[in-house]
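RECORD TYPE: protein structure
NAME: Acyl-coenzyme A oxidase
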Amino acid sequence: MTIPKTVNPDLANERKKATFDVEEFTAFIHDGESFLQLKRLAEEELFSDLPDPVELDYLSYEDYYNRTVEQCVNAITKVRAMQERVNPGGLEVYHTLMTGPMGTTLMPGGTPMGVHFLMFTRALKNQGTPEQYEKFGRRADNCEILGTYVQTELGHGTYLRGLETRADYDRQTDEFVLNTPKLTSYKWWPGGLGNTVNHCIVVAQLYIDDEPMGLQLFFLQVRDEQTHKALPGIDIGDIGKKIGLQAVNNGYLGLTNVRIPRTNMLMKNAKVLPDGTFVKSPVSQLAYFPMVFVRCMIVLVNSGFHAMAATIATRYSAVRRQSPIKPDEPEPQVLDHVTQQMKIVPEIVTAIAYRLAGVKLNKMYEETASAVGLSDYSRLPELHALACTLKASCTYDSTFGIERLRLACGGHGYLASANFGNIFTWATAACTYEGENSVLYLQVGKILLKTWGDMLSGKPLMPTMAYLGVCASWHEFPEWTGDWQCLVQALQYAATNKTLIASKSYTRRLESGLSPPDAFNVTGIELTQAAELHGRAFVANNFFEEVTQNRENRSASLNNLLEQLLELYLVHTVQRHMADILRFIHLTDEHLTSLQDRLETVLAELRPNLVAICDGFDFHDKVLSSVLGCYDGNVYERIFEAAKKSPLNQRDVPASFAQHLKPFMRSSL
Ligand SMILES: CCCCCCCCCCCCCCCCCC(=O)SCCNC(=O)CCNC(=O)[C@H](O)C(C)(C)COP(=O)(O)OP(=O)(O)OC[C@H]1O[C@@H](n2cnc3c(N)ncnc32)[C@H](O)[C@@H]1OP(=O)(O)O
Ligand SMILES: Cc1cc2nc3c(=O)[nH]c(=O)nc-3n(C[C@H](O)[C@H](O)[C@H](O)COP(=O)(O)OP(=O)(O)OC[C@H]3O[C@@H](n4cnc5c(N)ncnc54)[C@H](O)[C@@H]3O)c2cc1C
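PREDICTED:
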């Protein structure tokens, strides 16, 4: 099947209808030109010799892994050369490009080296001393060694204080002795650990003279650098097939009396001196900082997955024609069915809203990391709370949004070659890794409770929670104007009142004699609801600020488009949380009807720009890797071409006919 060189006329028409400059929107959504240029340059270099994704789909588990390693190595080699040209000594090309949606193209089943870049190298730099960085970190940055972040165990992932891996200090030899004493202490899940890495950072309970000193991070070699065989005392392997991310090579690790020098404990914060004196970290949560970084990254990465799925569904819905709206008219593009718009457009705007929130969150991470570098730890709780709530709501919204977008593509959405399967399994994994979502919401719930107490005692509140004080001071919600500020405030007001309710329930339970942990546990439902609303109110407020500020730096047409996107996001989000809002704010039927009218109006206003907005996300065809989502819209030809590549179509008659079907049909006669 040859793919036409021309663009599908429906898609070409859609692009002509755009009312804004796509390139200006692209720069806006990528937070400026510089990253965009870098991304495009990298795509040009990296995508020149990629294998066919359809062929990859039919490989065995082992071949898939080996093939991914080959692609990964090729890609990293190219990226390193590019980094040397763009900014010698820097690492931004590595880190930004290899872990974003582009990484998913190079390695559709995930990368066994993702955790090396995201966590291993960063933890060596940020948790080690400068000497340790020189000794281990530089080699990791140069990929002379490959590593991963080994924390989760078979028995514990969430409750870190329950981890069982031990590091006992031996004063005589100035070494730590590492052990995983039980089956449940086996390390389980770390990406790349299975068969790829030769080093890792192990998170273990430190013991000095059998006294527990809390969790610490240890640099450990697990495989010989030449032979790649496991070192003595180390039991290591792959945890087996998962529902997705087949090439991430998640692994297990058992340790029996493995000795490492004392200087292998990462000692930027806590320290063990040669005589066994333990010097505490100034703030124990600093050991959790590598996780905070990844939680922030996930918001950007998952909003990218969400936008990828939205682009595929939008382009396909512009090409797909079905079911006349009026009986005597031709079949319309399915995108003209209003219910189809309702399935797709809220996902487009949600992806944009999280993209903007993710950019803000990552800036906050950088500011906090700089402050931590100057021994100022005051912003850690605020960053922790925001990273937890945004990581949880973004991964949830993207996971279910991607599934809605797949469903919006009808039967063809179910084809592996449409690529929703990979995108979904990437997205949903992030609901669990780097902190299971409910657990993260409970962290936020705890901080909300504490903040509520601070507010009642007149203490200053952290900036992203200051609205609690404002809303709590209102006797009732101000007059409902329905404007954007009002909609943002409605979400904030609902979050505030949910926090109030949770706080009251918690206090009531304490007064009835429950212990604080029991009271916290039974208040968990209300606390997690408050935490979720807190995050959604932040995303809405941030979107509002992004659109209403700096207008003078953008063209009128882009401002107009952004206003429509904001309008849809706010109206849709308020409608989605209407049950919560109606509990605290009196709205008439007229108000509700007006919201529905606004939703339908803005859907219609956005309709001509949908394809152009998705073009503006700037996904290379190879990133989307979808027969339904290609820029040229030649959907049917691509579906057919992919089908032709099925291994079952490579011979006239499959072997099973002679072996099974023929004898079976004969015996049934
Ligand atoms: C895949 C590639 C595909 C191709 C490319 C595509 C691109 C993909 C990109 C993404 C790739 C990602 C790779 C995947 C990596 C996954 C790696 C992992 O999962 S690694 C494993 C991830 N594992 C997890 O995430 C485990 C989750 N569990 C945990 O984090 C902890 O056990 C806990 C937080 C739940 C509790 O901890 P506990 O010690 O029991 O604490 P308490 O509750 O008693 O609170 C005490 C105090 O501490 C405070 N505080 C807490 N945390 C922080 C913080 N971070 N900061 C500051 N403060 C914090 C808290 O507020 C409280 O304050 P206060 O009230 O005293 O004032
Ligand atoms: C694809 C993937 C990659 C991963 N990569 C890595 C890696 O590189 N390195 C690494 O160390 N780990 C990794 N992990 C492990 C991951 O971080 C953990 O699985 C995750 O933190 C969740 O912990 P858990 O599995 O113990 O879940 P559990 O805590 O057992 O969760 C089970 C259920 O219990 C509930 N629950 C648990 N505790 C509480 C609580 N306190 N209150 C209320 N409910 C609770 C949860 O909400 C959930 O519903 C990876 C996992 C996946 C899926």
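COMMENT: The mean pLDDT is 94.
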